[in-house]
């Protein structure tokens, strides 16, 4: 059997778990053609870093890494505004809705090394509320791309503001950047906080309530 056929079989076998459910439709997460192309590049990378891509432990690594990379960037295939629109409900609730401690895993666009932490997202409805799970879903849709933390924060805010048109949106992200811990400046405990607000959250009282609800970490306590 040729090595090309063997590689195709490896990819086929790996396709079994290549689908995720996004809540309302099943979509292909992995693209076989892209996996094949990416794997070729990763084989070259393995050679360039001084490894032997044909040794047993590394034989399937290029396909595995390709699969991981497609997963880590699958946000490009998602439309966050559509995700929100799919579960908007008319409701007269006018108080703050806060989803806090949403795990965030993203990759910095400068080094393609992970940054990770938590997002806290709040809005004040203006006639419509949104299905709660859709908030972490849009966080993921933007996080699973090459990002900077600042843009990630603003994109989440703008998506909610433009789609739901609430009385205000607040987004805070606290994250650790592995490009600052495992390389570069090598600071192990530094945490970066970014925030963005619209509408009612620009006012001191509402913003203070939001900060109180997400905890005192932002005050350095
Ligand atoms: N503002 C911002 N900077 C980031 C983010 N992720 C990584 N960076 C920074 O991007 C910068 C890239 O700077 P460069 O000087 O071009 O790259 P570098 O030589 O690898 O820099 P060092 O990390 O300082 O070694 C670094 O300061 C990183 O800390 C992010 O989400 N937001
Ligand atoms: Zn980085």
From TrEMBL:
The EC code for this enzyme is 3.5.4.16
Q: Per UniProt, where does Zn(2+) bind?
A: 108, 111, 179
The top EC class, named as a word, is: hydrolase
Report one GO cellular component. Answer: cytoplasm
Keywords for the protein's UniProt record, in alphabetical order: GTP-binding, Hydrolase, Metal-binding, Nucleotide-binding, One-carbon metabolism, Zinc
Task: Name the pathway it acts in.
Answer: Cofactor biosynthesis; 7,8-dihydroneopterin triphosphate biosynthesis; 7,8-dihydroneopterin triphosphate from GTP: step 1/1
Mind listing the GO molecular function terms for this protein?
A: GTP binding; GTP cyclohydrolase I activity; zinc ion binding
Name the Gene3D superfamilies for this protein.
Answer: 1.10.286.10, 3.30.1130.10
> One biological-process term from Gene Ontology?
tetrahydrobiopterin biosynthetic process
Give me the reactions it catalyses.
Answer: GTP + H2O = 7,8-dihydroneopterin 3'-triphosphate + formate + H(+)
| Signal peptide location | none
A Pfam family assignment: GTP_cyclohydroI
- The GTP cyclohydrolase I domain sits at 40-214
The entry assigns this protein to a family as follows: Belongs to the GTP cyclohydrolase I family.
Q: How does it assemble?
A: Homopolymer.
Under the heading PANTHER family, the entry gives: GTP CYCLOHYDROLASE 1 (PTHR11109:SF7), GTP CYCLOHYDROLASE I (PTHR11109)
> What is this protein's record name?
GTP cyclohydrolase 1
Lineage of source species: Bacteria, Pseudomonadati, Bacteroidota, Bacteroidia, Bacteroidales
The gene that this protein is the product of is folE
